[in-house]
Amino acid sequence: MTSIGTGYDLSVSTYSPDGRLFQVEYAGKAVEAAGVAIGLRCSDGIVLGVERLLHSKLLVKGANRRIASLDEHIGIASAGLLADGKHLARRGREEASSFRENYNSPVSVQILSDRISAYLQAYTCYGSVRPFGLSSIIGGVDKTGPKLFCIEPSGVYYGYRAVASGKGKALAKTELEKIVNKYLDAEQSGQGAGLTCREAVDEVARIIYLVHDDNKDKDFELEMTWICQESGNKHRPVPDDLLKSAEEKAKAALEEGMEED
Amino acid sequence: MALYHNQPMAHAQEPTAAPIEHRFNPYSDNGGSILAIAGTDFSVIAGDTRQSEGYNIQTRYARKVWQLTDKAVLATNGFAADGNNFVKRVKQRLEWYEHAHHKPMGLKSIARMIQTMLYGKRFFPYYVYNILGGIEEDGSGAVYSFDPVGSYEREACRAAGAAQSLIQPFLDNQIYFKNQQPEPGSQPFIPGNLPLATVLSLVVDSFTSATERHIEVGDGMEIYIVMARDRTTDDLLGEGKLQKGMEIEELGTLGEGQGERTFLVRQALKRD
Amino acid sequence: MMSQHPATWGQPTPANSSFNQFNTFPLPQTQRGQSSHAHHGPVGHTQQPLVTGTSVLGLKYDGGVMIAADNLASYGSLARFRDIQRLHPLGQHTLLGVAGDMSDFQWLKKELDALLREEDALALTDSHPSLSPKNIYELLSNLFYARRSKMNPVWNAVLVGGWDKVKKESFLAYVDLLGTTYTAPTLATGFGAHLAQPLLREAYEAKAGIDGNGPLLTKEEAEKVLEDCMKVLFYRDARSLNKYQIATITSEGVDISDSKSADTYWKFAEGLRGYGAQTQ
């Protein structure tokens, strides 16, 4: 950050001479400090997972969730400032229900992501506000099938097959690429059925355990939701038994990996 | 009055040229009756449990009598929806009072508050007749009665509701000793100091009689008895004090408790 | 005046708001965001029902509660819509049976579904318990009473049937356009209050007794009573239809039957004299 102290980083209403908005970039830093969040688009649905870092041993187990529902069929996992995430989820729910009110049909993941991104972008236009310290993964199943998007603090959003944000997202993305490529190859050669949500639960758990740094990071809880046939095509927590077995497998894979090293 | 909702053939006298205005009527009459009688150191507040509309019995058990504090019980009668929502608001105001002053509201203050709440809706009234019974700060039994827009007074007894015209004359005779002469040389009558047992049998007789002669009264009866502190309960809880078929329970204190005790007696009434 | 300041943002743009948020309109005195031109005359209130549904019946039985209603929505005396559903589930353990104005019913459905969807979404994040039948009934009672107090009634009579998961007991209650509320082991709205309620009470009390302490009707018995009642209503209520549904609400959840009809007997009509085409 060579430009600190030049005065161009104080407000989002002033560009730096080379065309950057430093406040937006700083918001990105808030994201990087958060536990990793992962979204994975499968052939039969969506799986969302977060590494919920526990800043205190006194926290109630399972509390302060970072994945929220925006509608029956859409979930949002956010990495960054928890309170910003809650606010954005609330706004997302209002958008989703307003869409239903106006059009009497569930909002598509694409349209909802677009509206939320427009909302985020507005917070990069005024000197009186700060951008959201959030990178939000929005996943859902609509009439066009499973869809996955990630919105950055700038308001920009892209569609993904798989996406990660937060601390250690680079490593997570490399792992996700491997999975995506494996199933893409299988699909193209006409033999694989594509990645299923049940398989994806194991994969996401494995990646989160892999990314988590036991030495540097605080303890964490694994939080996972999905939208698939098994959840009635609704956004629901991954069932406890499934989550538990995925965690066991993830820990086993970690042990195995350590032995290889 | 109650036999016909509209006077038979009433429309025949009206001019038919003008279009009939159809307007939503926000009120209904849900029948039933309530009464309260004060003693020197107790108060009895009672109501039946039938809720009706026209000739239909809506339910055989709907509450009309409500414990407000350790020394206040309110009976409501008239339009049930207004009654329920009015009681809800009264209870909310009592709660706020307790938060603000760290003590429950006294009986006479509740009575005044009810008057202002009723009058507050003077131009869209609660269609409810209220009777408030309980123990005053001086330990005496008291009854306050209200009209729907808040006019109120303290009395020794009051009946209201569908069978008011049946019960009130009876109470006037038995409580206020109207049309009675003391025996020559004996003490003059003083209203409001009958013993509890007498009051209870008056209440029961009032409701069984009203049930016989009024179609909107019946099914069940709830009698609340509020007793002043340090008063004996032997005349209520003692062996054989209650009539057959009566069930009694003591309602626990609502707050800190200053010695007043409230009992609830239930008895079945005829269901026809 | 619609503010541009982000601190005042909070709601999505409503469908009926004027779409001129960015000062494109040349006249500064124009009150943007306030649809002053939208209203002509007084605010419209439901002063009378138009398309209506008739009786709804409710009955507690051993292990749950049953609600029945036919599939007819009448336009006055015209049998206008003969395949509408007047039983509406709300969440896992609650069901509404609705009589009265069908457009108010549709509005009610929309509002409640939106509310339950929000509750459902919040439940995932905050793991708070879902709305119980009692919660939904209280909400409806407050809504109906508030609307009647604004002289703008929701022109319906509603039976709420449900299963209380905590108390492990069935729930059955009534609320109508006046905000009148009550509960009983058997309930009926409209014509059903005259024709079916006595039959329901008789059947209920035959087993449970007048205090309700005896055994309740079995599922089969309850269904039989309701079918009898729906038949009586079809015979005598001119605004009814011999096509109805029965919903059961138990600990297992809500089950709404397919439409069914009662066997009816009309042979006696041939023997009647004084109507129709007979000449002697």
TrEMBL record, chain A:
Residue ranges constituting the Proteasome alpha-type subunits domain according to the UniProt record: 8-30
Coiled-coil annotated spans: none
GO biological processes: ubiquitin-dependent protein catabolic process
SUPFAM superfamilies listed in its UniProt record: N-terminal nucleophile aminohydrolases (Ntn hydrolases)
InterPro entries in the cross-refs: Ntn_hydrolases_N, Proteasome_alpha, Proteasome_alpha-type, Proteasome_asu_N, Proteasome_sua/b
Pfam families membership: Proteasome, Proteasome_A_N
Disordered: annotated segments: 232-261
Gene Ontology CC annotations of this record: cytoplasm; nucleus; proteasome core complex, alpha-subunit complex
UniProtKB keywords: Cytoplasm, Nucleus, Proteasome
Subcellular location: Cytoplasm; Nucleus
Family: Belongs to the peptidase T1A family.
Complex formation: The 26S proteasome consists of a 20S proteasome core and two 19S regulatory subunits.
The name this protein goes by in its record: Proteasome subunit alpha type
UniProtKB/TrEMBL annotation, chain B:
Listed Pfam families: Proteasome (PF00227)
Subcellular location field: Cytoplasm; Nucleus
Database matches in PROSITE patterns: PROTEASOME_BETA_1, PROTEASOME_BETA_2
Primary location group: cytoplasm
Key words, A-Z: Cytoplasm, Nucleus, Proteasome
Gene Ontology biological process terms, A to Z: proteolysis involved in protein catabolic process
Signal peptide stretch: none
GO cellular component annotations of the record: cytoplasm; nucleus; proteasome core complex, beta-subunit complex
PANTHER family: METALLOPROTEASE TLDD, PROTEASOME SUBUNIT BETA TYPE-1
Subunit-level organization: Component of the proteasome complex. The 26S proteasome consists of a 20S proteasome core and two 19S regulatory subunits. The 20S proteasome core is composed of 28 subunits that are arranged in four stacked rings, resulting in a barrel-shaped structure. The two end rings are each formed by seven alpha subunits, and the two central rings are each formed by seven beta subunits. The catalytic chamber with the active sites is on the inside of the barrel.
Protein purpose: Component of the proteasome, a multicatalytic proteinase complex which is characterized by its ability to cleave peptides with Arg, Phe, Tyr, Leu, and Glu adjacent to the leaving group at neutral or slightly basic pH. The proteasome has an ATP-dependent proteolytic activity.
Homology family: Belongs to the peptidase T1B family.
Protein name: Proteasome subunit beta
Organism of origin: Kwoniella bestiolae CBS 10118
Lineage: Eukaryota, Fungi, Dikarya, Basidiomycota, Agaricomycotina
From TrEMBL, chain C:
GO cellular component: a single term: cytoplasm
Alphabetized SUPFAM superfamilies for the sequence: N-terminal nucleophile aminohydrolases (Ntn hydrolases)
Ranges of Polar residues composition bias in the record: 1-36
Family annotation (PROSITE patterns): PROTEASOME_BETA_1 (PS00854), PROTEASOME_BETA_2 (PS51476)
Protein family: Belongs to the peptidase T1B family.
GO biological process: proteolysis involved in protein catabolic process
One Pfam match: Proteasome
Superkingdom to which the source organism belongs: Eukaryota
Protein name stated in the entry: Proteasome subunit beta
Main location: cytoplasm
UniProt source species: Kwoniella bestiolae CBS 10118
Cellular location(s): Cytoplasm; Nucleus
Keywords associated with the record: Cytoplasm, Nucleus, Proteasome
Function, as annotated: Non-catalytic component of the proteasome.
